[in-house]
Design brief:
DNA primase, PRIM domain; 4 domains; Rossmann fold; 20% strand; ten-stranded mixed β-sheet; alpha+beta; 33% helix
């Protein structure tokens, strides 16, 4: 076989495609060489990765010999190699491996052809002994000359029964499955049935899916399936122009099967494999190994290649197609640091970042977001913060379209602003059309991308929320949708959310939003509004008898938190008033009561403060006195006094606080 190595030396590995490189490895293995030969030859390519040859080599084992040394000989010949290079004399031990240009690499030597063994191996690979197997041998020819199954076939015999029959009739496949039209071949379903029929509803296990692509050569199909490391249980030559890959999907039921097959097909399409989508059903027929078809064999090309199962393959897919940016050394930016995005709201929010406004239902959050839309569109301040002029998409999920438009008009009028740049505000009225955010985002991105928008405002998010609001994992996935908007459009994403129930004054601003803490900790800027209690003197400053007073606090990632700002909500706008409202107390705030000279908190207030601090600080059922004190803004002595007062509910051991468990 020295002529094969001579031919290999003539092939420049750097000039080969990935598929051609794989074919060389398969050919070397078929001719009995070790993987080290392939590895040593591959090292001449800058794409070489240590250990890859050995790993790939293990995936080449199969029942047939689809690629032989002739492949290497032909590659070398195409590059000008002559079989008798050197002294023109062959050694006695040399083997002539190449027989001319008409070589077909995907063939089975007739002396090795055993139809019964082909089907036996297929059944052993895919089925348990008790599984009912469905197969079809009857066929008819349509007007286009294509042969198709003409009946449901047989579906009442188990794999165990078929294997026993194949052992009994070891030289006659037809004695087990019946005769078939030699021009048509025979078919088999790769998932077991229940014995009542052959439709999707009759499938009992959703273990495998069929992948078939006849738009590429057989060799290219083989190479691509291996390159993409599909978890293939069995790769079957159809006897025609395609390979049938029986892929492990390991689904629990039909619903999961459909989702996994859809993902599988989509992944293949994205990687250049045009898949026959008619094969997506779990009851689909595939080619039965061991049968002949128009003079060609239907046979097993390879078995158990690629990843072991669906889960392992998904790990590969994540690494191959996660589309994540590469790792970058900080040193690269030493002399040229990246430019920060412009400030959309000065000192609060940058372009392309996320902002959440939280508050109770009486805060006028929608009006505040409309005011922000106008400020951005006109390039005017919002609550005293200068805004960068830009185009805004306002996603209206709650108000009927006419009311929404009229609100904008009233706000413009109340702000005494000329309507110079109203065209910068685009409204998407989705009341009655709202869908979960993960389904809305792709539609939104298509409308916004490359259209010159600076901000997307979604009002309110409860209309499109997905998952359990109090579940951190669900809300992390939900908030990731806002990241998609920012990343794919470059727009800032701004949205509002309501407070949790109960008094809010005793909580930090970041903890007031309803549901999981993910809501407040995910955005780059969180602004929280809490209502202020008014005494008679402050009430006299209200120009509108229905006006309410509010304080806004911040939790900012990019900037220093600003000093809380105070304002009135006088329908339909918010009016700043720091001087008069500076000393007002937050509504329902036990903490505010602590600061009032000469006044003491009630027992109920103290219990509420203790419960709030524990719930916010505790992890795994306990927290520390110091953490609770820091949270409430009091000294540790106060916390210990409260713990002593409510020792039937809480216990403290060396500064560690936990709840008292009752038997």
């Amino acid at each position: 076989m020295s002529n094969i190595l001579s031919a290999l030396d003539r092939i420049d590995v750097a000039s080969l495609t990935y598929q051609e490189w794989i074919n060389v490895g398969m050919a070397l293995q078929a001719e009995g060489y070790s993987w080290e030969i392939w590895d040593k030859w591959s090292q001449a390519d800058r794409r070489y990765k240590k250990g890859e040859c050995e790993r790939k080599w293990r995936t080449f084992k199969g029942a047939g010999t689809p690629i032989t040394g002739a492949t290497i000989v032909q590659m070398a010949k195409d590059r000008g190699w002559n079989f008798f290079d050197g002294n023109g004399v062959m050694d006695w031990s040399d083997t002539i491996s190449y027989d001319g240009d008409d070589l077909t690499p995907y063939t089975v030597a007739e002396e090795n052809w055993n139809p019964v063994q082909e089907l036996k191996r297929y059944l052993q690979l895919l089925f348990d002994a008790e599984d009912l197997v469905s197969y079809v041998t009857e066929s008819w020819e349509d007007s286009d000359g294509k042969w198709k199954p003409s009946s449901k076939g047989c579906f009442d015999r188990t794999a165990g029964q078929l294997l026993a029959s194949l052992d009994k009739h070891s030289n006659d496949l037809g004695a087990t499955i019946g005769d078939w039209q030699k021009a048509a071949g025979a078919w088999i379903r790769f998932n077991p049935v229940n014995g009542e029929g052959v439709k999707n509803e009759h499938i009992t296990k959703f273990k495998y899916a069929l992948v078939e692509s006849d738009s590429m050569s057989i060799a290219d199909q083989d190479a691509m399936y291996r390159k993409l490391e599909l978890p293939i249980a069995c790769l079957v030559h159809s006897g025609g122009k395609s390979l049938h890959a029986i892929v492990r999907v390991d689904a629990e039921d039909y619903s999961e099967y459909r989702k996994r097959v859809e993902f599988l097909y989509d992944f293949l399409e994205k990687n250049g494999v045009v898949v026959d989508k008619q094969n997506r059903n779990p009851s689909r027929l595939s080619r039965l190994p061991g049968a002949d078809r128009n003079g060609n064999h239907q046979y097993i090309v390879a078995e158990n290649i690629g990843r072991k199962n669906w889960v392992e393959w998904m790990d590969f897919v994540e690494g191959a197609s996660d589309e994540l940016p590469g790792l970058v050394s900080l040193d690269e930016y030493k002399d040229n640091p990246p430019k920060l995005p412009d400030e959309l709201i000065k000192g609060v929010l940058r372009c392309g970042h996320k902002m959440l406004i939280s508050g109770s239902s009486k805060a006028g959050k929608s009006f505040l977001l409309m005011e922000l839309s106008i400020a951005l569109a006109e390039g005017k301040p919002w609550l005293g913060f200068p805004c960068k002029q830009g185009r805004v998409l306002y996603v209206n999920l709650e108000i009927d379209p006419a009311s929404c438009i009229n609100r904008f008009m009233k706000i413009y009028e109340a702000l005494h602003l000329p309507m110079k740049h109203m065209d910068n505000i685009v409204i998407w009225n989705l009341r009655g059309y709202a869908v979960p955010l993960d389904r809305l985002v792709p539609k939104l991105i298509r409308r916004v991308k490359d259209s010159g928008y600076s901000a997307v405002i979604i009002d309110p998010i409860y209309k499109v929320i997905t998952g359990d609001e109090n579940n951190a994992s669900d809300m992390a996935a939900f908030c990731n949708q806002f990241d998609k908007i920012c990343a794919e459009t470059g727009c800032a994403t701004i949205y509002c959310h309501h407070h949790s129930k109960g008094a809010q004054g005793g909580k930090k601003a970041i903890d007031r939003a309803s549901g999981s803490g993910v809501f407040a900790r995910d955005p780059d800027a969180q602004l929280d509004m809490i209502q202020l209690e008014l005494d008679d003197d402050l009430s006299n400053n209200v120009r509108d008898g229905n006006a309410t007073a509010w304080r806004m606090e911040s939790s900012l990632r990019e900037f220093e938190n600003f000093k809380p700002i105070n304002f009135w909500f006088e329908y339909p706008i918010h009016r700043l008033d720091n001087s008069n409202l500076e000393k007002a107390n937050a509504e329902g705030s036990p903490l505010a009561n602590l600061s009032k000279s000469g006044k003491r908190t009630s027992r109920d207030d103290r219990r509420e403060m203790l419960d709030t601090a524990f719930n916010m600080c505790a992890e795994s059922g306990f927290t520390h006195v110091s953490d609770m004190a820091e949270y409430l803004g009091v000294d540790e002595k106060t916390i210990r006094r409260y713990l002593g007062e409510f020792k039937q509910f809480y216990k403290s051991d060396r500064g560690v606080v936990s709840k008292v468990t009752t038997q």
